[in-house]
Amino acid sequence: MNNEMNAPQPQSTSPFDRWQNAKEWLRQNLKGDIVIWIIVALLSLASMLIVYSATGTLAYQRGGGYPESFLFKHAFFTGIGLLVMWGVHRINYTYFSRLSRAALLISIPLLILVKVAGVTINGATRWLAIPGTGLTFQPADFARLALIANLAAMLAKRQRVQYDWQIFGKMILWVGIICFFIALTSTSTAVLLGFSCFLMLYIGRVPGKYLAVMVVSIGIAGATGLVVGQRLDTAQGRIERFLKRDEYQAKQGFIAIANGGTLGQGLGKSHQRNYLTQAYSDFIYAIIIEEYGIIGGIIIMILYAILLVRGVQNINETNRAFGGLLSAGLMLSIGLQAFTNMAVAVGIFPVTGQPLPLLSMGGTSVLFTCISLGIVLSVSRGDIEETNL
């Protein structure tokens, strides 16, 4: 009896104590810019609702399957992506400077392999099959990450050195080669990557005459890749239909936006998902507006704008030029892709085939977006001593 009375009693935890414990866990495990973490969480959660709604028709077209199957697949890749982002953000970002050149060299044969033995999906050959898994990935996403990291490293080494044509020639060479090979299978990706690199050079204080040469070089490399590649007819057709306002997908996107009005039709009540073949990817922003209205579309746009600003602000958060340039380059790439997707949906740009980062369904896009964001978060942690890793 006395032993029972003297036994320690379990202590009840109040909601306030649980909240404090949760905050402490988050503080210890989620380093870096908390605003970026919050926006990534919000976009990831929103993607579950939007992809579930947008894939209803796709499931029906593929034999009456359940839309939950696409939701579970998207949730799986999103979960893997977030886990990878968490792991990457704990790595000292300076390591990526050392790995960037090797990654760049690996990306070239992968891009060539896509041209030779790539998997064609929706009329575009941009994917490589992973043997024995049934999965595919886009080497262009890997090459984009490698080029931005390598360019940031080259620019960082020359912040206190006067530029000359020999130094700048190496930058032009790498940007031109990667943009050329990407343009063989994806014109819009090559254009966005080239523009991201141009902005990185501008931020890196490269003189104007070199920037002008960079623009011409990227233009020549991209145009050559387009002509000898597989997307020339597609690009010409999309531009012609855009000028004539005769693009089927764009028209259906306009109808979706008109249906959305100010407040939208409501979750799962989109009609145009039945007509948009890429409602879950390229035109997911149109579905967002149809279901959540202009208000929902503006909120999504603001979240991406804040994400872009926070990533570029990392230039002021680190004492190393490489970290600031790397963060700015990666976030510019994500931001340009996001705003291109939204611009296509509202009719500002021709159809490009660019997904909306973190929101569109697609394993490769989600994974490499999360890797990029993990690196940005690593930079936002500030300069980390290698001995603390």
TrEMBL record:
Family of the protein in this entry: Belongs to the SEDS family. FtsW subfamily.
Organism of provenance: Runella salmonicolor
Tree of life domain: Bacteria
Claim: Chaperone is one of the keywords in the record: no
Protein name per its UniProtKB record: Probable peptidoglycan glycosyltransferase FtsW
Subcellular location: Membrane
Database matches in Pfam families: FTSW_RODA_SPOVE
Key words, A-Z: Cell shape, Glycosyltransferase, Membrane, Peptidoglycan synthesis, Transferase, Transmembrane, Transmembrane helix
InterPro entries (UniProt xref): FtsW/RodA (IPR001182)
Main subcellular location of this protein, as a coarse class: membrane
EC number assigned by the record: 2.4.99.28
TM annotation in the entry: 34-54, 74-91, 103-122, 142-159, 171-204, 210-229, 250-268, 283-309, 321-339, 359-379
Record membrane topology: Multi-pass membrane protein
Reaction(s) this enzyme catalyzes, per UniProt: [GlcNAc-(1->4)-Mur2Ac(oyl-L-Ala-gamma-D-Glu-L-Lys-D-Ala-D-Ala)](n)-di-trans,octa-cis-undecaprenyl diphosphate + beta-D-GlcNAc-(1->4)-Mur2Ac(oyl-L-Ala-gamma-D-Glu-L-Lys-D-Ala-D-Ala)-di-trans,octa-cis-undecaprenyl diphosphate = [GlcNAc-(1->4)-Mur2Ac(oyl-L-Ala-gamma-D-Glu-L-Lys-D-Ala-D-Ala)](n+1)-di-trans,octa-cis-undecaprenyl diphosphate + di-trans,octa-cis-undecaprenyl diphosphate + H(+)
